[in-house]
UniProtKB/TrEMBL annotation:
GO terms for molecular function: oxidoreductase activity. Keywords: NADP, Oxidoreductase. Signal peptide: none annotated. It comes from the Bacteria. This is Aldo/keto reductase. InterPro entries: AKR, Aldo/ket_reductase_CS, NAD(P)_OxRdtase_dom_sf, NADP_OxRdtase_dom. Its EC number is 1.1.1.-. Residues 16-257 form the NADP-dependent oxidoreductase domain. PANTHER family: 2,5-DIKETO-D-GLUCONIC ACID REDUCTASE, NADP-DEPENDENT OXIDOREDUCTASE DOMAIN-CONTAINING PROTEIN. It is an enzyme of class 1 (oxidoreductase). Belongs to the aldo/keto reductase family.
Length: 286
């Protein structure tokens, strides 16, 4: 597995397995077991996914040593703030049955993210967190957090796919030594991405699937990518992307697909901020 080095010196796999929306009883546990057995080392979950406990069971069942895995989780908006973050983090460790996390992210740029960040800095000093970062932070929010704290986020997990390529944001992250990580690399199938003519032609050139081309397009740029599937054959397919390389002409062709807009929602839209706030419920620790 290829890796990238974060600015704090820690290394992480460039391709990982995500468990968002795997919520059927037992499904996330089995998916994690299958993913690890298939060869994934990076497992990405979140407090708001409501499957950390199953992910933890899957990690325990898998026949791979803990130090060979890179486990990520995320803090939800309902628990921002210094003390709330520490409490939520301990609950995450308990549910995952782990002593430490490789990476912990602030999931959304809302609430008391400054208090949360100070708590995460302290948890990192205590050795309970190896790396700390953020998710869905626009460049202004990212640099604001970095400038007013001791530690710059090691990573920013944002939506990146052929229809929302985030070129300017990625360039800015690299300038600030923040690792970009892509969620929804397949745009959840929107706009017929798996049958897109440009992607299909490139896939045929390499005897690969369109999904493999998308993941290779990301990782070839040094962007960490998260892929999700509950089918082990698809897991293996998504992992099998390091035996070919896209040409400069193919990379340029994919760049023409950029719509320069989110395929889901704009995190700066006040209506989106209100919608997420309305989802917040103090139920995580009940």
């Amino acid at each position: 597995m290829e890796t990238v080095k974060l600015h704090d010196g820690n290394e992480m796999p460039v391709l990982g397995f995500g468990v968002f929306q795997i919520n059927e009883p037992g499904a996330a546990e089995q998916a994690v077991v299958d993913a690890i057995e298939t060869g994934y080392q990076l497992i990405d979950t979140a407090q708001s996914y409501n499957n950390e406990e199953e992910v933890g069971k899957g990690i325990k069942r898998a026949s791979v040593a803990r130090d060979q895995l890179f486990i990520t989780s995320k803090l939800w908006v309902s628990d921002t703030g210094y003390e709330a973050t520490k409490k939520a983090f301990e609950m995450t460790l308990k549910k995952l049955q782990l002593d430490y996390l490789d990476l912990y992210l602030i999931h959304q740029p809302y609430g008391d993210v400054y208090g949360s960040w100070r708590a995460m800095e302290d948890l990192q000093k205590e050795g309970k967190l190896k790396s700390i970062g953020v998710s869905n932070f626009e460049n202004d929010r990212l640099i604001d957090l970095a400038l007013y704290n001791d530690v710059t986020p090691a990573l920013n997990q944002v939506e990146i796919n052929p229809f929302n390529q985030q070129t300017t944001s990625i360039e800015y992250m690299r300038d600030k030594h923040v690792q970009p990580e892509a969620w929804a690399p397949f745009a959840e199938g929107k706009h017929h991405i798996f049958t897109n003519e440009v992607l299909t032609e490139i896939a045929n050139n390499h005897h690969k699937s369109t999904g493999q081309v998308i993941l290779r397009w990301l990782t070839q740029q040094g962007i960490v990518a998260l892929a999700k599937s509950v089918h082990q054959t698809r897991m293996a397919e998504n992992l099998n992307i390091f035996d070919f390389k896209l040409t400069p002409a193919e990379m340029t062709a994919i760049s023409t697909l950029d719509r320069q807009e989110s395929q889901f929602f704009d995190h700066r839209d006040p209506a989106a901020v209100e919608r997420i706030a309305n989802l917040v419920r103090p139920s995580y620790n009940k």
